[in-house]
Amino acid sequence: MLQDVLTDVQGGTAGIGAEVVRGLASRGAQIVLLVHQPLTDPFFVDYIEDLRTQTGNELITAEYVDLTSLHSIRLFATKWVDNAPPRRLDMIILCANTMTPSGAKPTMTEDGLESTWGLNYVANFHLLSILSPALRAQPPDRDVRIIFGTCAAYLGGQLPDFDGKQSSAKAKKGAKLEPGQSDFTPTNVYATSKLALMTFAVAFQKHLSTYVRPDKKPMNARVIMVDPGWSRTPGMRRFLTLGSLWGLALYLVTYPFWWLVLKSPDQGAQTFLYAAMEAQYGRGEGSYFLKECRKVNWTRQEIEDEGLQKKLWESSSKTIVVLEKEGAKRRAVEKKEKEKTEGKSSAKEANGEAKQRKAK
Amino acid sequence: MSDTAAAISASESECRTVGACRRQKVDAQSRVMTPRASSAAADPVLASHRRSALLDLIPVPPTMPVNILAQAFNEGLSSIPLGWTVVKLAPVFAVLYLLKWFFNGAVNKSERNMHSKVVMVTVSWDD
């Protein structure tokens, strides 16, 4: 209960994403924040207002997207794409991620995915898949960048054996795909989600690059992956304190140490800002991996493995199709039940409405 | 005697620097202890003469950096208040600074005109 309250109050006001937003907004960019708190939340309204005043930029807006819900992502993204001429979009920065503290039980998203996997990987996959036409439709002289926030933890990731899964995949729940549901260790799932995200990022660049534009111009959208390093963000704090109060006390006592070895969120945002502004990443083939404001190579070679990319892509889209169908069914049932309960209390009204609907 | 103390404390509350403080203290003492000096104190030439004469007897630590260094060089570190403490703490802070600099990582130096660019951002979930 308390955690929920805190979640809503602090949302977006700390962490690397918030600092990136601040940095870009103060340089005049028009920001569209995708947030999970209700847009009428007075704390959040204050936060946006403060940000506008501090950065002297009125063009900071927020859209409600619950990244743990595939349906919510689809609603937002289709609304964005459904526009002619295509809406201007110069950059997507994917900072949202979560990590279950060690020892904690796995939590599930609305669609039945383990939440680390669901939010860090599947949500981004889903969002970009739908936004892809909007990215590809940008005029050829525009420098479009898609920036993925990743983490050194990807090194320890282990992608599931897709072939094995698919053969046994009468599994109705695509959630079975999600690694380690039986032997859940938060760090492993986190690492795997990041590895999957990077593999997908490279695949997404290929997906963009192979697209033949109607004007035959080269693809102008480029994927950049950013490893911001370790920062004192709310997510890191939650991980270090194991999400517990005694952990928080311990964290406070040992704070000088963390202050020394962990970056401030502002420092953590530097490589993101670099990825957003450095001119050389607006050229070339894309799929850049940046760390400490420098281009580096990834250590895991699977990321470049085209076969693996394809398998991951296919199984993810299958998962999403299955889950979205289930979600749609569930919503339909919920709606019916809601109508039923409402119908009992005010049957006449409902009847009236139904008649009106028929009349139409 | 209580008069002396009162005079000293009164003058102390007004003084700004160590030198000024000393001077005022000495003044107050001399005024109270030698009542006849009040007439002499009215004479500015005489008063300034006495003050400088008294001040020469009291060692005043240097307050400017170069003077402090000169004193450390001439008379040793222990002649400076907290001299050794400062010397011992300096490397600690230097190491702290270096560590902090190291762990802070690189700073972005690239700038680009971001005006009118539309940026979509998903922010961290764990806030």
Folded structure, characterized:
The complex is a heterodimer of chains A (360) and B (127). Chain A is an alpha/beta fold and 360 residues long. Chain A has a domain at 65-228 and 263-313: NAD(P)-binding Rossmann-like Domain (Rossmann fold), CATH 3.40.50.720. In chain A, 51% of the residues lie in helices and 10% in strands. Chain A contains 14 helices and seven strands. In chain A, strand 6 and strand 7 (294-296) form a beta hairpin. Chain A is globular, with a radius of gyration of 22 Å. In chain B, 63% of the residues lie in helices and 4% in strands. In chain B, helix 1 packs antiparallel against helix 2. At the A-B interface, helix 2, strand 1, strand 3, helix 5 and helix 8 of A face helix 6 and strand 1 of B. Strand 3 (91-94) of chain A pairs parallel with strand 1 (118-122) of chain B, so a sheet runs across the interface.
**What is the correct CATH architecture of the domain at 65-228 and 263-313 in chain A?**
3-Layer(aba) Sandwich
Any idea how many domains of chain B? 2
Structural class of chain A: alpha/beta
Mean pLDDT of chain B: 71
Rg calculated over all Cα atoms of chain A: 22 Å
In percent, how much strand structure appears in the residues of chain A? 5-15%
Instruction: Determine the strand fraction of chain B and express it as a percent band.
Output: under 5%
By secondary-structure content and strand pairing, the structural class of chain B works out as mainly alpha
The tally of beta strands of chain B, per DSSP, is 1
Helix share of residues of chain A? 40-55%
Distance between the termini of chain B: 66 Å
Low-pLDDT regions of chain B = 7-15
Largest sheet of chain B: none
Major beta sheet, strand line-up of chain A:
3-4-5-6-7
Count of runs of 4 or more consecutive helical residues of chain A: 14
Number of helices in the DSSP assignment of chain B: 6
